[in-house]
Amino acid sequence: MAVVLIRLKLALMRHSFTGMRVLGLVLALLGAALTWYLAVSSPGPRVRSDLLPLVFAVWAAAWALGPTVANGAGTLRSQYFALLPMDRRRTGALLLVTAFVDLGPALTLVASAALVWHGASLSAGAALVAVPAALLLWVSLISLSRLVFRALGAAMHSRLGMEIASVQWGLFLALIFFGWMAVQPALAATLELRDRGLGEGPTGALLAALPTSWPVHAVDAAGAGAWGSALGWLAATALTSLVLASVTAVLLAPRVTARGVRRRGRPPGARPLSRPARAVLPGTPLGAVVGKELRQWWRDPWRGLEVRASLWAGLFIGLLAWSSDTFSFFAPFAGVICAFIMVLATANMYGHDGTALWLTAVGQGPGTARADVRGRQIAIALLSAPGALALSVLFIVLTGEHWAWPYVLTGLAAVFGAGSGLSLLFSVVALSPGVDPQLRVDANDSGDNQVQVWLSLLSLPVLASPAVLAAVFLGLAGAPWAAVPVGVANGLLGALWLGRIAHRRLDGRLPETFTRIRYGKAVALQAVPEAGSLLDRLERTAISGNEETRPQGS
Amino acid sequence: MANDDGPALELVGLTKAFNGTRAADGVSLAVPRGALLGLVGPNGAGKTTSISMAVGLLRPDAGTARVLGVDMWSDPVGAKRLLGVLPDGLSLPERLTGGELLTHWGGLRGLERGLVRERAGELLRVLELEEADDRGVLIAEYSTGMRKKIGLATALLHAPRVLVLDEPYEAVDPVSARVLTAILRRFTDGGGTVVVSSHVMALVEGLADRVAIIARGRVLADGTLDGVRGPDATLEDTFVRLVGAREVGEDELAWLSS
Fold first, then answer.
1. Which domains are present in chain B?
2. Structure ipTM over 0.95, yes or no
3. What is the pTM of this model?
């Protein structure tokens, strides 16, 4: 059975060899090479037993985060096998086995084998212990990867789980954007790392305690002739692998419960049609869109993840900056950074909605597309502005850096405004469909948006530059408060102008936009002229640049 | 604006190729006013592709469609106002309740709020979705049949004059199917026109007064039920005669009865 599943996986992989997979493989290859370089070139066993725990911890972190961040819908989705006349647990276990068959895991095995080299340098007995230790480590690493991936997916079915996933994502975003602030002192030390190891200190002690270091302890103990302790560490490693693998197998088993059944009672804000509340929003197409969007943002875990992760990322970045000496002046800008991340998170709204765009397409009236774009802009602003504002207030008050007020307000207005126009423009022109909403299971089923993220990272600073320049020069001139109206004007113009381009494009190309979602990459490319306008070229770039995570069943 | 005579829905040489394969190859049909047309064909015949082009969801490579004389591809807004559509297997705003979806949809269509509330309430009651709405059940939690029914409600809400429904009976229980049939009959009695796609021949035979058979992207037959059926005993015989059927030989799949 395992062989059948592995063949299926290889067949599926042959049909989807993507750029992201190549990048992953290159990283794994570099990782394996670096692991062996450090193992071979370090001056002695003592330094090596300091370095290997660090290296293995990095491998574990990479495996835990990589697959989730890499935006893949997963090759063998467990729901494919729900109808097999086989115990669900057994299906889960078999699926876990297939996770080991790939180039990435193979390279990881190569890297783990550096432990055997380490053992061989100590004694023949240590080398003997190193073989099972390396294998067990390998099993732990790969199981951990699937565990984190599926746990995030499972978390999407409850509100608390979604919140935990948001904290993880927020922390991850904070680290990739501003982790260097914390790491910088450590980085300076790295230069000496290869020659001296970590030495004594809290970092070394923490690393030594991690389960990824236990196989190294086992080998070291065997090298020192302490066989009891060697076997003890080996047993602990085996137990870790066993627990990880069993929990993962359970999580990989196909779900047989219906989606969303954990919710009790009426969703927030829902009233039955028979007992309507007093209407707050106007009874126009625009009001209808704002109402729908606010409800969807509030209730959809995939959307909730985006909003919450931006807030958490802002909070963590603020804390990181505040806790470092050099960059603490930056902490008041946590809210602005949160607004920035929010723009990245909302740059694929139509991809998020999937084929539900048919409603807008068949219901198209004279101002439908305009109402749809403007309504989404308003809903996003209503949802995200209070959080970013609260973060700003929190950090300015905490740090006592009250000089920052005018700069933060200018920044918020410019980033929110220009960003709201930009994200809707990308949502229309560069949309990238994921697994269709009613089939979503995993945390990153909602469509790849790497093209939008990179383009936003580049263009949002440019779009907000009038406000930034005004803040710098007026600040130097001693009148920073005069920059606030410039920021507001910058934001308003950006929101109106880019939003207008977005809704005109959508209005003229509703069927084409729907085709992108419904029929996938190849057909979508037929509908965009090759040597067209700037928007056409942007659309082609997004279609070819984003990974296709279209519905493959679930 | 809509003209007063001529067919209610007209498909004129609709053609679409996906990756070099012609899914629809010059599909032409004329559906008279007040008719209930059954569009039948085997899996992959091009039914959904043709319907998508007729209702403005997919731009044709060639050809066009007209709703009461209004061209879908030169005056989409005018044509879509007259048309109610139920596509097959697509998403909806999944995190709304049925009532919220209809309220949103009416607002987006520019209908007056009181009117939307009245019609939406009636539709939910008739389609037996009222209890789910009272409990606050989200569309993501609906069964396949319930999804069909709320989709039908969105197609009907703005009181269109032509209905195009892709597989409306699929996964709908027999009781709801009777309700659906009664709704469609009332609609045509009032002068409305309906196109229903299906691959269940018996259903179409009992429901429709006109039939079009489509296979390999082409229209093979089109006319009144009796006209298309001709000398054949059932519509299924006609279908098999036109489309061709693979018979299962004596020795094939013998292991199934062993």
1. 21-82+161-245 (3.40.50.300), 90-159 (no CATH)
2. no
3. 0.80
